[in-house]
């Protein structure tokens, strides 16, 4: 494996010759892999190739141990250049050539069309442009927190510099002193739609300088010029060594194949076999190899094992739960803040890297993170009004051995950032999203901030756990549970203060002996005639309705469905066997708990009369009680509709 000594000022002729030979072999793989697959992105792969080939000769890495903790990281933000990335990783010995060429872009293969961590050496699944730099920021911040003197390199396209999230990431990198971060930009001036300045005019160099980064410009196809630029970053010989650095590499799309150069057509189109043969001839390879490999690929079985990429584990102490007595009336978000602060006190010890991190977006006080910040200032990350970046950087940090909590209002935590969370899930992160201000319960802030449409979005994210506590005690228990959870979790809550839920003896239902169990509903009240299934902020209205119905001699059950995924299907079926079911929720009817209940009954072939009560139109600005009354979610409306359901 080629390893270049950074103490030298220039590359030797022998090193340049070696790099050129490696480049030639990698170009061959790019052409073959895309032509054999009949699709792919050869153009940008070729323009980025000199950077990639040289980069792996300079960084600290071990192909035999791709997840070496003390490694440098390479994040490929424009993930469509997977043919180039896989070709270079193959060149450096991460895996043999044959499975890459035979399996690229085939169903079940590790070698996806955009870079994926199932391939050893790939640090982050990318493809949705603009997110790679945020992930790289998370990795660079993790290295800083752990005091590991390694670097993160983010290879990017020039077109994706148009993305707003890229600028968000640049600002974050400066604020948190990520001078261990370098962005390498493939400046070939082309994107799918043609010349970048025609698609969307921008001055990339000046925009980066305006966010206080070091900027180095280099010839992206001259190994010595690239070496000089990379060496300046690695040795700290830049204008502001305390700042991150961007290398703007002047390149040509399709570089190395005469008829492909500077033509956007080849951004996302593979060469047909006849042109692939012509390209191989230009490189000095046997063109007949195309026909041989095309035939071989027809019967080649997928065999290369996907590389595991689970999050780095973190072990935390969860401590003793806080008990809120019957006379206490507080909001769930305050209970969350206290639980989070206690986790910091237990696990973030002076003189050691913190284990628990908190991230928010200019809403520290509203999401109750102030106590956490005071307890553990190094672990607190104020990201500003930059939710897209915050969601991605939080996801990346959660893979690096940190228990990471990302908190903001529901509309920002979910509706605004669903694509970022989708990429987090694909990257097998372990992020804890705690969203406050969900539902009509947001009240006077009005419909733009009343997050009533999040469950349908979250349920599309495969494997994401979804919880919504009903009072401060259950909030405390759920937060301590998710601190031990290994995967991605969403915890939602409203804004208002809620009474402590009591059992019929007048004691806290979620008392000192209560243990939160995922997938298990809480039977708050036992009755025989019907069941109300609800969750979250409407529970006081539901319990008030239960009291009114009881006074009239109507005995019903109340199920608190705090665990929305996994869902307690057994409890739903049991409720259907008992009688009619009413679902009450501070959420859009069509995509909320009512939909889950109906699906469960249909799946198991159970019949029950259903009444689905939820949000049927966007609300107005007003007190939550009035908004609930407008939409029939108040106690009197619940009583009225339950009587009709039983009639």
From TrEMBL:
It comes from the Bacteria. SMART domains: Transket_pyr. Keywords: Thiamine pyrophosphate. The keyword Plastid does not apply. Its cofactor is Mn(2+); thiamine diphosphate; Mg(2+). One of its GO terms (cellular component) is cytoplasm. Residues 330-500 form the Transketolase-like pyrimidine-binding domain. InterPro entries: PDH/Transketolase, THDP-binding, Transketo_C/PFOR_II, Transketolase-like_Pyr-bd, Transketolase_C, Transketolase_N. Gene3D superfamilies: 3.40.50.920, 3.40.50.970. The keyword Cytoplasm does not apply. Belongs to the transketolase family. This is Transketolase. It comes from Thermodesulfatator autotrophicus. The lineage of its organism: Bacteria, Pseudomonadati, Thermodesulfobacteriota, Thermodesulfobacteria, Thermodesulfobacteriales.
């Amino acid at each position: 494996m080629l390893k270049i000594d950074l103490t030298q000022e220039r590359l030797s002729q022998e090193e340049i010759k070696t790099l050129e030979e490696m480049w030639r072999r990698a170009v061959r793989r790019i052409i073959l892999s895309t032509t054999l697959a009949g699709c792919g992105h050869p153009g940008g792969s070729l323009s980025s190739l000199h950077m990639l080939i040289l980069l792996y000769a300079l960084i600290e890495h071990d192909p035999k141990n791709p997840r070496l903790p003390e490694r440098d990281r390479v994040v490929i933000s424009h993930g469509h250049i997977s043919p180039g990335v896989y070709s270079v990783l193959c060149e450096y010995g991460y895996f043999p050539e044959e499975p890459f060429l035979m399996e690229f872009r085939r169903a079940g293969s590790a070698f996806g069309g955009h870079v994926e961590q199932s391939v050893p050496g790939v640090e982050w699944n990318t493809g949705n442009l603009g997110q790679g730099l945020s992930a790289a920021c998370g990795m660079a911040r993790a290295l800083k927190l752990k005091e590991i003197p390694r670097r993160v390199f983010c290879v990017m396209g020039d077109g994706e510099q148009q993305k707003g999230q890229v600028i968000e990431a640049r600002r974050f990198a400066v604020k948190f002193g990520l001078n261990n971060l370098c962005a390498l930009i493939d400046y070939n001036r082309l994107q799918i739609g043609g010349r970048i300045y025609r698609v969307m005019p921008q001055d990339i160099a000046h925009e980066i300088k305006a966010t206080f980064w070091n900027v180095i410009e280099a010839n992206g196809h001259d190994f010595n010029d690239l070496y000089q630029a990379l060496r300046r970053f690695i040795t700290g010989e830049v204008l502001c060594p305390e700042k991150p650095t961007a290398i703007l590499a002047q390149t040509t799309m399709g570089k190395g194949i005469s008829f492909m150069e500077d033509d956007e057509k080849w951004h996302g189109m593979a060469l047909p076999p006849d042109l692939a043969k012509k390209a191989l001839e230009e490189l000095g390879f046997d063109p007949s190899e195309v026909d041989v490999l095309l035939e071989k690929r027809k019967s080649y079985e997928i065999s290369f094992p996907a590389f595991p990429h689970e999050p780095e584990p973190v072990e935390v102490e969860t401590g003793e739960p806080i008990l809120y007595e019957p006379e206490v009336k507080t909001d769930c978000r305050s209970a969350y803040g206290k639980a989070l602060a206690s986790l910091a006190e237990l696990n973030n010890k002076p003189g050691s890297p913190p284990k628990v991190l908190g991230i928010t977006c200019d809403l520290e006080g509203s999401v109750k993170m102030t106590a956490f910040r005071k307890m553990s200032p190094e672990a607190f990350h104020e990201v500003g009004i930059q939710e897209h970046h915050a969601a991605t950087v939080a996801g990346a940090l959660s893979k690096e051995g940190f228990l990471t909590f990302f908190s903001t209002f529901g509309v920002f935590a979910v509706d605004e950032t669903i694509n970022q969370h989708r990429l987090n899930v694909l990257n097998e992160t372990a992020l804890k999203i705690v969203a406050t201000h969900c539902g009509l319960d947001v009240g006077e802030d009005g419909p733009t901030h009343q997050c009533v449409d999040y469950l349908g979005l979250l349920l599309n994210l495969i494997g994401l756990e979804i919880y919504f506590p009903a009072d401060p005690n259950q909030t405390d228990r759920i937060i301590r549970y998710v601190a031990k959870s290994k995967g991605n979790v969403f915890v939602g809550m409203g804004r208002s203060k809620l009474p402590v839920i009591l059992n019929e003896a007048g004691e806290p239902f979620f008392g000192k002996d209560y243990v939160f169990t995922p997938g298990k509903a809480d039977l708050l009240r036992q009755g025989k005639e019907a069941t109300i299934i609800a969750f979250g902020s409407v529970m006081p209205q539901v319990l008030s309705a239960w009291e009114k119905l009881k006074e009239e001699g109507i005995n019903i059950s109340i199920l608190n469905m705090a665990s929305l995924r996994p869902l307690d299907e057994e409890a739903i079926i049991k409720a259907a066997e008992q009688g009619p079911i009413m679902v009450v929720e501070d959420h859009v009817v069509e995509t909320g708990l009512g939909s889950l209940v109906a699906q469960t009954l249909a799946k198991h072939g159970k019949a029950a009369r259903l009444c689905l009560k939820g949000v049927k139109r966007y609300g107005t600005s007003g007190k939550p009680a009035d908004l609930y009354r407008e939409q029939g979610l108040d106690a009197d409306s619940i009583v009225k509709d339950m009587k009709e359901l039983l009639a």
